Amino acid sequence: MKTLIIILMVSLAVCCGVVSATATTVGPDQLIAPHGKKAAQTHSSVHRISQRGCTTIPDRYRQEEYGDVLHALEGPCPRTFSEKEQLFIAGLSQKLLQDCGLPTGLQSRRRLQKFLSSSRMVALIGSQYGNPNLQKGWRDQAISTTVYGVGALFGQSIGCGNRARLLTHRIMEYLTRTAGGNGKGSRYVKGCMSYYANRYSNRQCQCLADLGRAIMPNIHQSKFDRSSIQVLIKRNPLIGLQIAVQCGIGNY
């Protein structure tokens, strides 16, 4: 059954192309509903307020879901978010793009769409698809779907005012900063280009890293190893499909 579901998802991805950030959107109520109260409780149990590298978090943020993430964005606090934190940001970004048309710049939208396209795949089947422990895989899928939905609900709740514009700006700063290796250039992309010299271009290696960040948030700062591509595909085959289709990387 699990294999059949994946085949159907892959078929959908192939026939419809990589889901556009302005086209197909799963509503936040649809994202949360399939897993119900139990999944929401699971989500709450795995996220703890963090102050990694940040100043003390004001009380107003502690009243919000993922308040530490919002504080880090609005602070700003230049840290790399975890996989699940990025899913919250993706759900939020999707809603702001859909409802508010943010960001407005073409280049920013392209970068955001790349981030959203792979994040949706994680929201659909999680990042533990290849885990031999099926229970852990299913639990991760439920959490991933729920977290994305929580982000979308938050985006809906703040409307399209000043806070929405500030968060969009800071999210784009985050995607740009981390993709550039925090100002040093992407170590992963440089290693990919060196390893696949005359086979894959800078654009293709950058595409690989940009998609891979949905599962490996610090991928741009990491040393390149071709086994990382296998890891990405094993953890989420739909992202593996995107790597082949969007990046043109099939032989590694």
Tell me about this structure.
The protein has 252 residues and is mainly alpha-helical. It has helices at 2-16, 28-32, 36-46, 59-62, 67-74, 83-100, 106-125, 134-158, 162-179, 187-195, 202-212, 227-235, 237-247. It starts with a helix and ends in a 5-residue tail after the last helix. Residues 1-42 have low confidence and may be disordered.
List keywords for this structure.
disordered N terminus; 2 domains; 252 residues; mainly alpha
Instruction: Note the main sheet.
Output: none
Tally of domains: 2
Average of pLDDT: 83
Parts with pLDDT < 50 across at least 5 consecutive residues: 1-42
Short description:
The chain contains 13 helices and no strands. With 252 residues, the protein is mainly alpha-helical. It folds into two domains: 27-179, no CATH class; 181-252, no CATH class.
Give the SSE layout.
Elements: H1 2-16, H2 28-32, H3 36-46, H4 59-62, H5 67-74, H6 83-100, H7 106-125, H8 134-158, H9 162-179, H10 187-195, H11 202-212, H12 227-235, H13 237-247
